[in-house]
Amino acid sequence: MERIKQGHAVSKGIGIGRAFVYTRYTPEKKVVYIDEKDVETTFARYHSILQQAHQEIDSIRESLEKKGDDKAKIFQAHLDILHDIALEEMIEQYIKQERFSIAYAVHEAFDMFIEIISQVEDDLIKERVADLKDVKNRVLRIEEGLPETNLSRLSEPSVIIADDLYPSDTATLDRNYVEALITEIGGVTSHTAIIAKSYEIPAILGIEGVMKKVKHGTPVIADAIKGELIIDPDEKLIDEYQIKRKEYKAKQALLITYLPLKPITKDNIKVEVTLNIGSASDEELSYVPYVDGVGLFRSEFLYMENDHLPTEDEQYQVYAKALKAFGEKPVILRTLDIGGDKELSYLALPKEDNPFLGCRAIRLCFEHPDILQTQLRAALRASVNGNLWLMFPMVGSIDDIEKIHDAVSQAKVSLDSEKIPYSTDVKVGVMIEIPSLILIADHVAKMVDFASIGTNDLCQYLTAVDRLNPLVSSYYQSYSPAMFRIIKMAIDAFNKEHKPISVCGELGGDPIAAPILLGLGMRKISMAKSSVAKIKKIITSHDMVKFSQAAHHILNLTKEKDVIEYVQSVLKLED
Question: Based on the number of CB atoms within 10 Å of its own CB, is 518 exposed (0-12), middle (13-18) or buried (19 or more)?
Fold first, then answer.
């Protein structure tokens, strides 16, 4: 038995199960020829590989279809590619005439098709490249005799152990069997952390070397309350943790009683508690009665969980669904926020040494105005169904804001020309995450309808720390007095102009940070659904005066640990 006390417990809870060590398959291309006498047996083996690939793909397709999941269509497309006549004939020719090995023939044939399709101008056809690569890798993996490690097909309670998890990995995650997520890379604000909180899956991220320490199938316990991974525990310890898990779940169930309460402090100050969502799923929309709207609609999830750029109509359907559900309550839709730790398999992003400081979010959309216009048209069309607020990420200057207004106007003009209706009351705002924008917040507040502070990236840029790099995670201090000082500058500027300002980053749902933000003058905070009841309990159990006194005290502190200790002692927060 071994205990590892490293990493960050980013999503609380306890997971017990067998380790599912997830390694993404990466094929290596080698030039290999076969003897003429082996041609027929090689070709026969290739068809056997095709049959196995068909069974794997069809099994995933059927599983998704039974769940009513639209992603089943992706795997039907994979079957079509697998049995494409032109591909099969080319691979047969390479094996029988050129005497290529199976792997070399598959590489050559698929790579040729990928190159041809990549040069086609039609975006819909270009999007098939990701599917071709997926099918190619599946065939090559089977040829190597390696097992499938698909996270949608778990058969027992499992603790996922991975180097990192990409959006494509979490898109098909089988939540019925996932007990916990453990990764070597990632911190409290990574994509995996956001997914874990959203799905309420215990998670510990940033455990260096964990892939080598845990063997596939080994029993493990993930204590994401203490931040501890226990490898190969004995039966006695497993029994103890079964009890601890029941106690934790009972405590969470008691906390849920705060969910229906109005978020009003004891001295009668109303706070708007809003929701961070990613897909307008029925599970997310079930929280409509308990919140004051959507503080952050992460529209990139719609892109990341697809195999192609979502069309205008596809986006319209999702946005309209959310707007209808929330009615008059505001829904803040963040435009496409791709780059940094978020990529699209079907869209080639520039290779950059510092992607978090590069062409991402609104910068990327300015480089691809067609993508931005498609999204804006879809959102504006959907706006007739509710109360839409448009928010733009990674805004760093007044120039950016002027470009944003021009882009929105262009979308409106195009809809007007087609006599397509949209709401004339759509608010346009910015996400404040670049410090330079806060230093001119007095001007910004005059040019936009609202703002929301993205504390994840704001902290990253303020502290000069790559928030996904575990080597410098101790320098990423989201409770630093410097963070709260700079946030106060933004709050003061927008409050002076009587413009709404909120927080939609991780600090909004954080028990230590939320009271400070409210004490600094914030009256709207957004969070994952798993944090709503906990934050409502804090709000309804205290006076705003107490929050204000605590907030102004911490502005004069100098260290993050002092902030944490002070807030916990004054507000008597429970873990």
Answer: buried
Of all helices (H) and strands (E), which one includes residue 295? strand 294-298
Judge residue 30's burial from the number of C-beta atoms within 10 Å of its C-beta, 0-12 exposed, 13-18 middle, 19 or more buried: exposed
Run of H or E including 356: none
Beta strands 524-527; 272-277: pairing state = parallel
Q: What is the pLDDT of residue 195?
A: 78
Indicate the SS3 state at residue 332: strand
Nearest to 64 by CA among 73, 55, 54: 73
Q: How far apart are CA 463 and CA 476, in angstroms?
A: 6
Over residues 528-573, the pLDDT tens digits come to 998 999 999 999 999 999 999 999 999 999 999 999 999 999 888 7
**Rounded Cα distance, 319 and 375, in Å:** 10
Give pTM, 2 decimals.
Answer: 0.73
> How many domains does one find in the chain?
3
* CB atoms closer than 10 angstroms to residue 535: 22
SS (H, E, C) 391-460: EECCCCCHHHHHHHHHHHHHHHHHHHHCCCCCCCCCEEEEEECCHHHHHCHHHHHHHCCEEEECHHHHHH
Range of the domain at 178: 2-23+150-254
Per the document, the length of the chain is 575
Mind spelling out the 3-state secondary structure of 168-211? HHHCCCCCCCEEEEEECCCCCCCHHHHHHHHHCCCEEECCCCHH
Separation between Cα atoms, residue 139 and residue 106, nearest integer Å: 8
pLDDT tens track for 98-145:
999 999 999 999 999 988 887 776 655 666 777 888 899 899 999 999
Write the burial class of residue 59 (CB in 10 Å: 0-12 exposed, 13-18 middle, 19+ buried). middle
Token pair, residue 311, equals: 């069309």
Looking at residue 499, its amino acid is K
pLDDT value at residue 158: 93
Residue 28 in any domain: the answer is no
Residue 256 DSSP one-character state: G
Beta bridge partners of 228: 223
- Which of 200, 228, 254 is the last residue in one of the domains? 254
3-state class (DSSP) for residue 21? strand
Catalytic annotation, residues: 191, 504
The amino acid at residue 90 is M
Here the tokens at position 518 are 């409210």
Angle, helix 560-571 to helix 481-496, in steps of 10 degrees: 70
Distance CA 399, CA 566 (A): 41
Cβ pair 501, 517 in contact under 8 A: no
Q: Is residue 562 part of a domain?
A: yes
Residue 43: CB atoms within 10 Å: 17
Contact indicator for 444, 423 with CB cutoff of 8 Å: no
Q: Which residues pair with 334 in a beta bridge?
A: 298, 391
Residue 198, domain CATH:
3.50.30.10
Task: Identify the burial level of 557 via C-beta atoms within 10 angstroms of its C-beta, where 0-12 means exposed, 13-18 middle and 19 or more buried.
Answer: middle
Q: Tokens for 265, please give them.
A: 């402090």
Residue 113 half-sphere exposure toward CB, CA atoms < 13 A: 25
Question: Is there a contact between 273 and 256 (Cβ–Cβ < 8 Å)?
Answer: no
| Structural domain contains residue 30 | no
